[in-house]
Amino acid sequence: MLEHPLPSLRWGIIGTGLISSWFVEDLILDRPNKVANHIIQAIGGSSLQKAQVFFEKYPSGNNVSVYGSYKELYEDPNVDIVYIGTPHALHKTNCLDAIRAGKHVLCEKAFTLNSAEAEEVIAEAERQGVFVMEAMWTRFMPLVEKLRELLHQEKAIGDIHRASCDFSLPMDLSSFPSTSRLKNPALGAGSLLDIGIYSLTWVILAMETNFGHEQPKILASQVIRDEIDIATTAILTYSHGKQGVVTASLSTTSPSSFCRIEGAKGFVIVDGPAASMPQSFTVHVHNQEPVKYEFKAPGRGYYWEADAVALDISANKKGNSVMPLTETIRIMSLMDEIRRQGGAVFPIEETV
Ligand SMILES: NC(=O)c1ccc[n+]([C@@H]2O[C@H](COP(=O)([O-])OP(=O)(O)OC[C@H]3O[C@@H](n4cnc5c(N)ncnc54)[C@H](OP(=O)(O)O)[C@@H]3O)[C@@H](O)[C@H]2O)c1
Fold first, then answer.
1. For the chain, which terminal residue's Cβ has fewer other Cβ atoms within 10 angstroms, N or C?
2. pLDDT at 4 over 90
3. Which CA distances in Å does 171 have to 11, 44, 163, 175, 182?
4. Helices marked H in the chain — which ranges?
């Protein structure tokens, strides 16, 4: 019997910073039970030298094209999909340029600066008939799938009443150059878009059986320093008195037990080095021994989202069901509201 070949995707990577290096390292990892082949076809940097240095540091094959501009990469007929690993404020333009060149797109979180930009990108992808997805990789982890099954199908802790999640990462912003994407408001810096988006995602994964079945009311506060939000707290209130608490800070450190989900019959604690990288969770049901679920895998785990993208594209889909485009727009609009109340404004929004 003939075996079906695995779907293959030829990736063009733009941006030669931290996340692009992690993504490339994971994609070329030799791992068991692969469901797709990932080929690094091209690297595009803002200069040829940066792209070359990146390629030499993270070697990804003999036939990789190395470009000193993103445009050349968009125009490469051998690239199927563009992975966007640039600062938040550039995502809209990078996405639109890649989409208009006929490429599929996987764009890092936060997808754009705000929901209006996200809608613009998604509408263009629909017009051009290409696949697009926000790279919220944590959603694709087997841990998250198992946790949601226990919470929402098996009702392991009964009705869920509250969830809280923290992602805090102390950053000595005064030591960063003003051009840093973590400091420069014009590049989309701030706790919410950079790390608070994970806290928001966990609360939504915990509280919502069907994403967006109900739009929670938001009460939010942010600490603004040097024009960026260095801390964010938001309370999401759902019907029947259910609440989610979302926190993020650039001044302090999250506990390894970064997320707590409370239900009528018990609670769940999720652990890991950060909210983006869960490694285990423990289910505590009243009057029973706690049960710990641990998840180990090679690399960091960016290949799960990449595999999902490859399977979707081979099935001619234009979006993904784990990170739906409607959900990307909703997350962006929830963050718009958090910033409206909290006070973080990006310079480009002040001129609109
Ligand atoms: N999924 C995750 O786990 C994860 C982790 C970290 C970050 N991220 C996301 O990934 C994106 C990039 O973050 P990062 O930490 O990789 O940033 P980074 O290390 O600063 O890299 C960003 C890259 O974007 C390019 N770029 C183009 N114009 C730029 C400009 N004006 N200023 C700075 N860089 C510019 C640069 O490469 P070239 O000049 O060569 O083009 C730069 O190396 C963000 O959306 C962030 O939220 C995701």
1. N
2. no
3. 32, 28, 26, 9, 9
4. 18-27, 48-57, 70-74, 88-100, 115-128, 142-148, 191, 197-207, 303-314, 325-342, 347-350
Whether the CB of 45 sits within 6 Å of ligand 1: yes
Q: pLDDT tens digits, residue range 42-87?
A: 999 999 999 999 999 998 888 999 999 999 999 999 999 999 999 9
Which of 147, 167, 169 has its CA nearest to residue 292?
147
Look at residue 3 and tell me whether its pLDDT is greater than 70: no
Q: Which of 286, 282, 283, 262 is nearest to 271 (CA)?
A: 282
Q: What is the predicted pLDDT for the residue at 351?
A: 66
Exposed/middle/buried for residue 127 (C-beta within 10 Å: 0-12, 13-18, 19+): exposed
Burial label for 255, CB within 10 Å (0-12, 13-18, 19+), is exposed
Secondary structure (DSSP) of 114-146: SHHHHHHHHHHHHHHT--EEEE-GGGGSHHHHH
Q: What's the 194 CA to ligand 1 centre distance in angstroms?
A: 11
Ligand 1 centre from 19 Cα, in Å?
6
Query: Measured from the CB, is residue 50 less than 6 Å from ligand 1?
Result: yes
| Residue 253 pLDDT exceeds 70 | yes
Domain range annotation of the chain? 8-136+303-319, 142-297
For 142-297, the fitting CATH number among 1.10.287.130, 3.30.360.10, 3.30.420.340, 3.30.565.10 is 3.30.360.10
CATH architecture of 8-136+303-319: 3-Layer(aba) Sandwich (3.40)
Ligand 1 centre distance from Cα of residue 51 (Å): 13
pLDDT tens digits, residue range 114-154?
999 999 999 999 999 999 999 999 999 999 999 999 999 99
CA 267–ligand 1 middle distance (angstroms): 36
Question: For the segment 272-314, what is each residue's pLDDT rounded down to a tens digit?
Answer: 999 999 999 999 999 999 999 999 999 999 999 999 999 999 9
Written as six digits, the tokens of 66 are 């190395």
Same fold, 8-136+303-319 and 142-297: no
User: Is the CB of 339 within 6 Å of ligand 1?
Assistant: no
